[in-house]
Fold this protein.
Amino acid sequence: MLTISPATTALLAAIEHLSHTPLVRRTEVGILIELSVQQKMERTLDELSFYAKFCHKTYGVMQRIGPRAEGFEKLAHEFHVRVEQCKEVMRQLLEHASEDVRQMFTARFLTLTPTSFGNLLELFADLTQYKNYRLDEERGRSSAGEHDASSG
């Protein structure tokens, strides 16, 4: 199994602190972060978290409005397309991972079973928290840069 670095562990703790919610799939999110850093694929993880956030939000809307609502079919189709995109991006991140990590992710998230789908939804929720953390981080850098520019 992949060793999670202290930097990734600190990042996971910061995400949980910001969101006031523990990550359900903390280990797996840590592995994805670790793989993205090791392989210099941070942008790929950002892409995965973007689509995961879309899926998480869309699934919530679908649950709220129900299958008889106007536009549900279109929403369901878009959700399916993005889920497949997430899986493909995840496979890219896992491409150079060890065999045991690839097998674990395949079994937990990439098979066509109700359990795997439930696990994937949990991972999407956690990746949404990761994405929100990254967005807050970017806003912080942006406003700090504006502050620095105006004080100089």
Summary: Residues 114-151 form the longest helix (38 residues). The radius of gyration is 17 Å.
